[in-house]
Amino acid sequence: MSERLESVRRDYTPAFLAHLNRRSEAGLRAAYELGRAAMAAEVSMLDLVQIHHAVFLDVALTVRDLDELPAMLDAAAAFLVEALAPYEMTQRTPVRRGGD
Description:
The chain is mostly helical. It has helices spanning 3-22, 25-40, 45-60, 69-92.
């Protein structure tokens, strides 16, 4: 993994873990900011998804109570959606053409 991706993962992991523990708007805001930082560092959306998956897998392997898993999956999905939101926003920005 490149240094750039390792740096994103180092930032992603504690924010992700904090969100799983608290499941708050602050955690989702952190995910959004991580997504913005990843975009600024020219990390692709696919790379960010792979980072999320790797971090989530590390966490999921530690789950002892399977009853907690559905809530954890929902929280992890919400975090990923927020991290990807900046990428989505760049795709939805209208392109202005002359005369429009």
